[in-house]
Design brief:
single chain, 5-stranded mixed beta sheet, 5 strands, globular, acyltransferase activity, transferring groups other than amino-acyl groups, transferase, GNAT_dom
């Protein structure tokens, strides 16, 4: 089966403590976090609409969360299983990963 690529679909917007990818039809994915303290965020949820799964939506959301954490000088505790797996697999997230 050919893998879908939705790298250029929708726009990522920040909504309170979440990043959401929206298309004309509405939201297709989100990643949420809860501030634990001034410099620590708990990444607690990632969701991608079934029609868009397997097409880089979750990765785009995680990348945006990590960019924001770097800009704010924050560390991320991965409570969400997707974020935890990605942090373990990808050393480029080591600077924001709070164990």
């Amino acid at each position: 089966m050919e893998r879908k690529d939705f790298s250029d679909v929708g726009e990522i917007v920040k909504e309170h403590h979440a990043f959401v990818i929206r298309t004309e039809e509405g939201p297709i994915g989100e990643i949420t976090y809860v501030p634990a303290d001034e410099h620590t965020w708990i990444a607690d949820h990632t969701y991608v609409s079934p029609n868009y799964r397997g097409g880089n939506i979750a990765q785009r959301l995680l990348q945006r969360l990590v960019e924001e954490a770097r800009e704010e000088g924050a560390k991320i505790i991965p409570q969400c299983s997707y974020v935890g797996v990605q942090f373990r697999r990808n050393p480029e997230y080591a600077d924001v990963w709070k164990h």
